[in-house]
Amino acid sequence: MPAIQHRHDPRSSLGPAIAKAIGHMLNELTGRGPTTARAYVSEDLISVVLSDSLTTGERSLCRSGAGDLVLSLRRAYQEALAPALTLAVETLSGQRVLALLSANHLDPDIAIESFVMVPRSAAPADTEAAGTRPGEVVVPSG
Question: What does the radius of gyration of the chain's CA atoms come to, in whole angstroms?
């Protein structure tokens, strides 16, 4: 009887590692991290959904009608964190990040960090020959 081979998928542990890193960095910057963080990983997109991450002060501002101020503050946090978040995702995934998109929702308290990745299947030599940047793919129009 042939032996059954099980292959370990290193990407199966990538989601939890990225979720933990993103939650930790948010905690470092704001003084409070999310109570839950879950990462969804595909070849060209990694998204982290963070729940319950507003600080006590931000919650107070929301209750007093200053939700726009809280969203502004959160955008500033995300801009400050962008280089570190990008580096962490690139280091953990072994892929380059093309873009980081961030958004927050106040009620319910949910945030998302989405990283658009250079797909592993993108061949840098092919894109360079086409006159594009490494990892860039030209999509025909029409």
Answer: 19
